[in-house]
Write a structure and sequence with these properties.
Elements: H1 7-13, E1 43-49, H2 59-72, E2 84-90, E3 103-108, E4 134-143, E5 149-157, E6 163-164, E7 178-179, H3 180-191, H4 227-230, E8 237-238, H5 250-259, E9 292-301
The structure holds zinc ion.
């Protein structure tokens, strides 16, 4: 399994917070042809798989935290946006990731790999395992021509980390679970179409411009980016004890409101169209000559690795 090193994350630990210059900027995720991505209908349902949550979360904690994280990005908590993320509880333990028009939130507890494994042209499974430093991964399926988001799935790493509610139930000093609501709020930023708010080679893509047309700053540069970048929900790495990403920064709010300005007091009717996979019971609506591409972004842990997490 190819893993990315943790040295860079550890290095920035001592530098973050030294600068106080404010920067108003956010970065949108784009397709391979440079089209910014967004949902066509701003009412998005996430299916939350509660059947077997990992330590130390209970199913009730898990669902409550999910509800709060979705509300953080949604109208009416964010009055200037039209988007609404809604959660539906599922009793099963987990679900697969894929373009099936079912947006899922799941924990991976056996292997930290995409499930089901992608298959090659011959139909042979090719395991796609994520870096052990990644707390969570969001996969986004999008129409590469129009930028329409058509499916999103969030996987949490319960192989390398335990998960808890560090605000409601502070962890004992002998254990350091990561804060689930904190990490989920970040991943939901990807769900609404935002990219990380700075450049890191870990994302495996070219440097993007922010909303002002300025090339994004280096996430782990020297000098480090200003506090407005490192403190935002869409900064790509956190300390395990971090809880500040639960609340959006001004830049995060500006991003979601400019992508989805408020236009409806209730969910608008669902538009037709999309790619060729339909919801169960609905006839497929093929959209020839347009394919859907996968984008995956992860939230990394900003800390020294524990000894058992060897490359
Ligand atoms: Zn991320």
């Amino acid at each position: 399994m190819r893993r990315r090193g943790g040295i860079l994350f550890a290095f920035v630990l001592g530098l973050a917070g030294l600068s106080s210059r404010h920067a108003s900027a956010y970065v949108r995720e784009v397709t391979s042809t440079g089209v910014p991505i967004a949902w066509r209908n701003p009412c998005v349902t996430m299916h939350i798989y509660l059947g077997s949550p990992p330590p130390v979360l209970t199913a009730a904690d898990y669902f409550a935290a999910s509800t709060l994280a979705m509300a953080a990005w949604s109208y009416p908590q964010v009055a200037c946006t039209d988007i609404r993320l809604n959660g539906v509880a599922e009793t099963q333990a987990s679900a697969g990731v894929g373009y099936d028009k079912s947006n899922v939130i799941v924990f991976r507890q056996t292997t930290w790999c995409r499930d089901p494994a992608p298959v090659d042209d011959a139909g042979i499974p090719e395991p796609d395992c994520y870096p052990g430093s990644a707390l969570a991964v969001t996969s986004i399926f999008k129409n590469v021509k129009t930028g329409e988001i058509v499916d999103t799935d969030i996987e949490f790493n319960a192989v390398d980390y335990s998960w808890g509610d560090l605000v409601g139930q502070p962890a004992p000093v002998t254990a350091t679970p990561a804060d689930f609501q904190n990490a989920l709020t970040h991943e939901l930023g990807h769900v609404v179409g935002l990219d990380h708010n700075c450049y890191t080679t870990n994302d495996g893509q070219a440097r993007l411009n922010d909303n002002t047309g300025t090339p994004e700053l280096d996430c782990y540069g020297n000098p480090p980016p200003p506090d407005a970048v490192t403190a935002a929900t869409m900064y790509p790495s956190v300390l395990l004890t971090d809880t500040q990403r639960r609340d959006l920064s001004a830049d995060d709010v500006q991003g979601v409101c400019e992508i989805y300005p408020h236009a409806h007091d209730v969910c608008p009717p669902s538009p037709e169209g999309g790619c060729s996979v339909a919801s169960p019971g609905v006839s497929p609506r093929p959209w020839p000559e347009i394919s859907c591409a996968l984008f995956a972004a992860f939230l990394a842990v900003l800390a020294f690795r524990r000894s058992r997490e060897r490359v």
